């Protein structure tokens, strides 16, 4: 929930061209501005800069690279103005991470899945940004939003590696981010500049209150990045949220999903803190990092109800951990029973799981337990669930389909012992 990000399905990635960037090749001197980066031959991973493998797309300006601080990485600012129909994006990251993104086809525009298209065209836009008393601007439902519906799809105006942010002196950091913003198309830049500012100088004030962290990169090389998503940045906080976000590295996209039905006119709210955080530290964190005093029911409502909610959230966490333990130790029947308790507690706390998420888990547990029939039944329901609430990242659906095939094949084998022979 909340900060969950989906892992990338590498089997589906378009690998053409990417690994060339990892060879020990010298960079084109004109592209690399830093005098040190022009030394040749370059060590291991500093290789040539990733380029987008398509004739219609190219970086809008030569990547701007920072002087390397060590021999194992090179960080650059990459700007692509045409990204997602002219929204544009500026990414400051290592050449290794950028190669992974390019290789996965992140920068190639693909049509959204039919479910998302249908929703927009028949039901209309789900939300509008407007003033909300006491909270500046906020996101309000423009129509009824159903439970599980993806109500917002946003892409980053800027994405910066945390390692780069930590390494740079403040004035250099601000200069680099400014450069990243200046490279964006005018409309996106204006939208970003219109966002609410927190404390701090220049662009620091902008990043401080309008960013989310996401993971980018493959396996051990995955790194925390800070993303400025200009639509998402308008969503206010509640400790009892009615929506959450999930990030797709595959599509470089943030999706906001409704936990429950949100009626027209109601504000869309997500939690800026982990849901299991206790009241006192949570309030302090919101005050310190986000500069506001939370007035949600869990912070200001009756103590007793807040304590009960805290207990349930702790229990939800424990149930998930116990379920994973049971699975790891081969107690699949127990794990299935705990999974049901877990789902019930999430619902009780008004933070329901997506049906497809639950079915995915239970299907796998039945499979491990050797009950092919139940595995196939749940796998089928998972597939239906992912189709119905189609994410822009199709990898969950693809995985569910592949799993359904495996479970169905096992079931057929079990039902027809002669199946294999004939
Ligand atoms: C990501 S922005 C949200 C959008 C912002 N309200 C705006 O006008 O653009 C985060 C800032 O919104 C305000 N905010 C968010 N949730 C709030 C809440 N529950 N109560 C009061 N202010 C809130 C705080 O000033 C916070 O630093």
TrEMBL record:
Residues 114-273 form the SET domain. InterPro entries: SET_dom, SET_dom_sf, SET_domain_protein, TPR-like_helical_dom_sf. PANTHER family: SET DOMAIN-CONTAINING PROTEIN 5. Keywords: Signal. It comes from the Eukaryota. Transmembrane segments: none annotated. This is SET domain-containing protein.
């Amino acid at each position: 929930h909340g900060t969950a990000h989906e892992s990338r399905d590498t089997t589906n990635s378009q690998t053409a061209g990417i690994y060339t960037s990892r060879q020990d090749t010298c960079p084109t001197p004109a592209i690399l501005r830093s005098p040190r980066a022009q030394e040749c031959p370059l060590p291991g991973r500093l290789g040539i800069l990733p380029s987008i493998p398509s004739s219609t797309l190219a970086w809008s300006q030569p990547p701007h690279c920072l002087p390397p601080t060590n021999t194992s990485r090179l960080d650059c600012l990459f700007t692509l103005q045409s990204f997602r129909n002219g929204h544009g994006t500026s990414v400051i990251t290592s050449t290794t991470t950028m190669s992974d993104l390019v290789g996965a086809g992140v920068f190639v525009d693909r049509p959204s899945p039919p479910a998302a298209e249908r929703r927009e065209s028949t039901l209309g836009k789900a939300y509008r940004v407007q003033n909300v008393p006491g909270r500046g601007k906020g996101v309000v439902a423009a129509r009824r939003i159903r439970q599980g519906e993806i109500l917002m799809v946003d892409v980053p105006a800027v994405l910066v590696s945390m390692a780069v942010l930590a390494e740079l002196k403040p004035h250099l950091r601000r200069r680099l981010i400014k450069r990243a913003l200046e490279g964006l198309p005018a409309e996106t830049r204006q939208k970003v500049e219109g966002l609410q500012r927190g404390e701090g100088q220049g662009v620091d004030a902008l990043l401080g209150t309008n960013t989310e962290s996401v993971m980018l990169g493959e396996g051990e090389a995955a790194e925390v990045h800070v993303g400025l998503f200009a639509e998402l940045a308008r969503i206010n906080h509640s400790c009892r949220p009615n929506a959450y976000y999930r990030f797709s590295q595959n599509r470089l996209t943030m999706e906001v999903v409704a936990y429950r039905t949100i009626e027209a006119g109601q504000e869309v709210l997500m939690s800026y803190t982990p849901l299991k955080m206790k009241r006192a530290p949570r309030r302090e964190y919101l005050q310190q990092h986000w500069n506001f005093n939370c007035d949600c029911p869990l912070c200001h409502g009756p103590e007793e109800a807040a304590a009960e909610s805290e207990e349930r959230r702790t229990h939800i966490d424990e149930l998930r951990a116990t379920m994973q333990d049971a699975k790891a130790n081969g107690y699949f029947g127990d794990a299935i029973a705990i999974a049901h308790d877990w789902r019930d507690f999430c619902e009780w706390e008004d933070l329901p799981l997506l049906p497809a998420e639950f079915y995915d888990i239970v299907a796998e547990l039945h499979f491990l337990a050797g009950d092919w029939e139940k595995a196939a039944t749940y796998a089928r329901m998972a597939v239906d669930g992912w189709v119905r609430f189609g994410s822009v990242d199709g990898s969950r659906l693809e995985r569910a389909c592949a799993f359904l095939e495996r479970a169905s094949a096992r079931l057929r084998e079990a039902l027809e012992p002669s199946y294999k022979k004939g």
